[in-house]
């Protein structure tokens, strides 16, 4: 009989060895892993153990298995989809306020750094993404995904990889903000301050970018805070 505890231990050991394999070679998101036979020989494990280890690392957002193409380093390598457990906090309005508190601590400074460090290519991409969000809003279409992408692109333009990962973790607040504000601020906030924010980054105006992001997030905070106070 196979000892389930030793089997699990072998899978965990193999998963850790795969992580060592990745880090020792300084592999990056998007890089392709070697084939199964190569890894089996290199790690000295069976096919079933290797596959279970890869499945475990996929669940941790370290690896991504693409059917027919192979196994790759995940885009957000090692960053879980919901590390803060936000899915299981059910009071959306209060959670939105908590998230906005954190965003006010982080995002204005992120915008400032983006204005200082954004490349020409990143600036062009931000202008295009901002226009896409505007077009969706004006067409009365769902813009949450593209709004989130814009904020993540600003974080990436900051040049700070920690901020980029934090932005990925906090992106769920965009949807919660839209729900909590009943999308009432999209015309006098999202449309206006996204454009001011991106324009400031493109001009490399650090103070302007900082202020635009601060106002953008603060208006959301004040709206939801007033809504909560009216319930008390």
Provide structural commentary.
The structure is a single chain. The protein has 232 residues and is mostly helical. Helix content is 70%, strand content 3%. It is built from ten helices and two strands, in the order αααββααααααα. It is elongated, with a radius of gyration of 21 Å.
In short:
With 232 residues, the protein is mainly α. It has helices at 4-24, 36-43, 47-59, 92-117, 120-138, 144-157, 161-170, 172-180, 186-202, 206-231; strands at residues 63-66, 70-73.
Spatial strand sequence of the major β-sheet: 1-2
Strand content: under 5%
Largest sheet: 2 strands, antiparallel
Please count the beta strands (DSSP E, at least 2 residues each): 2
Instruction: Return the average pLDDT rounded to an integer.
Output: 86
Q: Overall 3D geometry?
A: elongated
Distance between the termini: 61 Å
Query: Helicity range of the residues?
Result: over 70%
SS field, number of helical segments: 10
Helix and strand content put the structural class at: mainly alpha
What would you report as the Rg, rounded to the nearest angstrom?
A: 21 Å
Oligomeric grouping of the chains: single chain
Order of helices and strands: HHHEEHHHHHHH
Low-confidence runs: none
């Amino acid at each position: 009989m196979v000892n389930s505890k030793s089997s699990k231990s072998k899978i965990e050991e193999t998963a850790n060895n795969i992580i060592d394999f990745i880090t020792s070679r300084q592999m990056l998101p998007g890089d392709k892993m070697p084939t199964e036979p190569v890894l089996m020989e290199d790690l000295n494990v069976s096919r079933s153990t290797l596959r279970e280890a890869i499945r475990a690392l996929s669940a941790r957002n370290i690896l991504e298995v693409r059917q027919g193409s192979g196994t790759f380093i995940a885009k957000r390598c090692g960053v879980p989809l919901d590390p803060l457990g936000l899915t299981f906090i059910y009071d959306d309005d209060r959670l939105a306020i908590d998230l906005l508190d954190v965003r006010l601590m982080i995002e204005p400074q992120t915008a400032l750094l983006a204005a200082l460090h954004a490349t020409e290519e990143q600036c062009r991409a931000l202008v295009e993404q901002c226009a896409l969000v505007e077009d969706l809003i004006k067409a009365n279409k769902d813009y949450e995904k593209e709004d989130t992408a814009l904020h993540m692109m600003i974080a990436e333009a900051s040049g700070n990889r920690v901020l980029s990962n934090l932005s990925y973790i906090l992106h769920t607040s965009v949807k919660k903000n839209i729900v909590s504000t009943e999308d009432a601020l999209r015309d006098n906030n999202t449309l206006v301050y996204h454009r001011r924010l991106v324009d400031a980054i493109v001009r490399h105006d650090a103070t302007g970018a900082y202020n635009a992001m601060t106002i953008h997030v603060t208006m959301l905070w004040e709206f939801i805070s007033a809504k909560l106070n009216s319930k008390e």
